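lol forgot to send this yesterday, sorry. C-alpha cells for the thing we talked abt
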C-alpha cells in the first residue's frame, strides 16, 4: 500500500466499532463475539466525502489496472488472485432491493466477498450490507467479527450501482481442509430511527460450489518472537505472522489486560483498541487491527487490513504498536457520511493513534 493512502487510513484509525456497534447483532446466530468493525466503512465514507474519492480511484486504476478481480483492487494486492477467486455473478431481488454477489475468496482466516446493489431512483439514505453468516460444507462457521467497506472510491458517486467489500473473520483452524459447498447469508440495511442502529430491509442467501484453488495450501509463517511494552503492566509477546497470498494475521500473547469495556444499549461490551503498523524491508506499510482476544490463552489476534502480505523471505520487519484514542464525543456512521468535510477538517495530531513502541525483527535469523 502506498504511504499516502496508509497515512490517511492511519489518521482515521481511531474510527473503531463504536461507530457502527451492533450493526449486525439483531441477526447473529453463531458469531463468537459479534459486532462489526467500523474502521473500513467509516474510512471509505470519509475518503469519498472529503473529495479524495476521485484521486484515490485514479491511483487504484493506475496501480492495479492489469488485475481482473475487484478484491485485489480494493486490497491493493499486486498478485493475480484469479486462481483463488470464485466469480459468482448471481443476482437476487428481495423486497425491491437488487443485490449481486460478484466475487468470493475463501481464505484460511477470513471469507472475503464483493457485492453490488442497485440504488433506487432518487435514493439518498446511506445503506449498508452485512455478511452475517457463513456455512461451509453444510456447517455454520463461527466468526470473530465482520466488517463492511463502502467501495465508493472504485465505483464513483454518480452511479446507481454501489459496491461493498465484506469480510468474515474466522479462526484459521475452523476452515475445513476440503471445501465443496458454500452458503453466504447477507443483510441489506438502512439506518434505524435511533442513531447508531440499522434496520434490515432485505435478507439474501447465496449458495455456490467451491471450484478454485484453496489458499490454505499456500500458507506460510514468518517468526517474530519479539516483545513490545505498552505500559501500565501490559506487554505484547508477538509470536509469528501467518500468511497466504491474500491475507496475513499476527498473534501476540499478552501479559496484562488488553481489552477495554464500555456500556452500550444497557450491555457491557469489550473492544480492542490496538493496531499495528508493519513496515517491510521493501518500504511497504501494512496495517493490522486487533479483532479477537482469547481470555484462556491470553492471545490477541491482529488481522491485516490491506496490502500485500509480507514475503516469506523477508529480511527485516519493523512492528509498531499503536492504541486508538478515545473519541471526545460519540460519532455515528450517518454523521460521517453526511458531514465528512467538516469532520475531516477537525482531525488533528491528537486524533492519530498513540504510538506505544516499536521493534525491528530479523525473521531469517530466528
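and heres what i got for the seq, position by position
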Amino acid at each position: 500500500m502506498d504511504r499516502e493512502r496508509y497515512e490517511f487510513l492511519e489518521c482515521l484509525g481511531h474510527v473503531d466499532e463504536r461507530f457502527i456497534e451492533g450493526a449486525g447483532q439483531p441477526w447473529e446466530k453463531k458469531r463468537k463475539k459479534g459486532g462489526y468493525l467500523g474502521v473500513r466503512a467509516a474510512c471509505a465514507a470519509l475518503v469519498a466525502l472529503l473529495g479524495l474519492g476521485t484521486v484515490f480511484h485514479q491511483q487504484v486504476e493506475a496501480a492495479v489496472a492489469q488485475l481482473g478481480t475487484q478484491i485485489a483492487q480494493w486490497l491493493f494486492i499486486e498478485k493475480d488472485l484469479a486462481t483463488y477467486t470464485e466469480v459468482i455473478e448471481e443476482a437476487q431481488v428481495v423486497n425491491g432491493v437488487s443485490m449481486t454477489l460478484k466475487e468470493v475468496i475463501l481464505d484460511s482466516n477470513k471469507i472475503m466477498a464483493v457485492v453490488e446493489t442497485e440504488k433506487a431512483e432518487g435514493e439518498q439514505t446511506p445503506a449498508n450490507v452485512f455478511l452475517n453468516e457463513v456455512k461451509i460444507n453444510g456447517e455454520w462457521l463461527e466468526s470473530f467479527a465482520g466488517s463492511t467497506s463502502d467501495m465508493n472510491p472504485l465505483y464513483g458517486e454518480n452511479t446507481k450501482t454501489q459496491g461493498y467489500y465484506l469480510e468474515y473473520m474466522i479462526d484459521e483452524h475452523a476452515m475445513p481442509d476440503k471445501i465443496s459447498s458454500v452458503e453466504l447469508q447477507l443483510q441489506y440495511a438502512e439506518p434505524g430511527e435511533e442513531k447508531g442502529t440499522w434496520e434490515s430491509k432485505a435478507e439474501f442467501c447465496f449458495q455456490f460450489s467451491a471450484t478454485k484453488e484453496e489458499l490454505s495450501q499456500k500458507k506460510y509463517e514468518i517468526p517474530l518472537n519479539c516483545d513490545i511494552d505498552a505500559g501500565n503492566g501490559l506487554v505484547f509477546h508477538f509470536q509469528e505472522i501467518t500468511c497466504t497470498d491474500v491475507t496475513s494475521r499476527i498473534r501476540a500473547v499478552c501479559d496484562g489486560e488488553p481489552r477495554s469495556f464500555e456500556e452500550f444499549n444497557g450491555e457491557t461490551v469489550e473492544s480492542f483498541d490496538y493496531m499495528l503498523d508493519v513496515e517491510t524491508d521493501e518500504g511497504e506499510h501494512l496495517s493490522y487491527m486487533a479483532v479477537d482476544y482469547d481470555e484462556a490463552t491470553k492471545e490477541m489476534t491482529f488481522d491485516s487490513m490491506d496490502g500485500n502480505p509480507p514475503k516469506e523471505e523477508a529480511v527485516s520487519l519493523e512492528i509498531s504498536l499503536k492504541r486508538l484514542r478515545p473519541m471526545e464525543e460519540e460519532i455515528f456512521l450517518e454523521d460521517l457520511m453526511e458531514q465528512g468535510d467538516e469532520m475531516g477538517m477537525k482531525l488533528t495530531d491528537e486524533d492519530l493513534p498513540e504510538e506505544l513502541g516499536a521493534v525491528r525483527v530479523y525473521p531469517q535469523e530466528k
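The two ends are 27 Å apart (CA to CA). anyway ping me if u want another try
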